[in-house]
Amino acid sequence: MKTVSNYIACIAIALMLISYKAHAQLGFGLKAGANYSSMYEHENSPDFNPSPKTGFAGGAFLSIPILPFIGVQPEMMFSQKGYKAYGTNYEYTSTTNHLDVPLLLKLKPVPFLHIVGGPMYSYTLSRNDRFTSGSLSVTQQEEYESRIDKNTLGAIGGVDVNIKHIVISGRAAWDLFNNNGDGTTSNPRYKNFFTQATIGYRF
User: Fold this and answer.
1) 3-state DSSP of 102-116
2) How many angstroms separate the CA atoms of 10 and 95, rounded?
3) Model pLDDT for residues 17-69, shown as the tens digit of each residue
4) H/E element holding 83?
5) How far apart are CA 83 and CA 94, in angstroms?
6) Domain 27-202 adopts which CATH fold?
7) Taking Cα atoms as reference points, which of 159, 161, 173, 168 lies closest to residue 198?
8) Taking a C-beta distance cutoff of 8 angstroms, is the pair 168, 161 a contact?
9) Residue 23, phi then psi, degrees to nearest 5
């Protein structure tokens, strides 16, 4: 009985040490930067060729180690996407604000360089359209309600460069399903694509 008790005690101590080590290696951080976004596979007009636009990106991340060279990194990002369109005498800019939640698998070939990739859930918060022609400028804003047709899934991948507590990140992401706007055919249906550069601090 004493041998069994000692064995159980050793296992408990080992589990506590592993738990403590994993907790000590958890990395929470904040980051901010910019998106360079456009769209592809425009459903209403396949020949439409939009131009990319720049928007803000910022949020938080949590680095969770699994093995010495593998981990998981969920993120929560406020992300501005959209596109621009130009005509002979007009300019049209569409900006959509999203809450993006990537769930990234992290590979760590070397301590300072991490390769990440995985699925991304994206929820559209609001949309801002601006039309300018000469002296005429019209802006339309719409706050979206919580509806399933505002959600989409995407894929995202990139790298993190770690310099002590500083994390420099590069990402590329694209929607796997159309962004249906308000679910009607009056709004364009398309897929977002963007590249992202951020700098962050890991606590």
Assistant:
1) EEEEEEEEECCEEEE
2) 58
3) 554 445 446 789 999 999 999 987 665 555 567 889 999 999 999 998 988 89
4) strand 70-86
5) 6
6) Porin (2.40.160)
7) 168
8) yes
9) -65, -40
Q: What is the pTM of this model?
A: 0.77
What does the domain layout of the chain look like in residue ranges? 27-202
Two tokens, residue 150: 């505002």
Contacts of 183 by beta carbon, 8 Å cutoff, 6+ apart: 147, 149
* Tokens coding 48: 């439409």
Q: For residue 37, what are its two tokens?
A: 């976004």
- At 58-112, the pLDDT tens digits run 999 999 898 889 999 999 999 999 888 877 788 888 898 999 999 999 999 998 9
Strand partners of residue 33: 57, 198
Q: Are 34 and 173 in contact, with CB atoms under 8 Å apart?
A: no
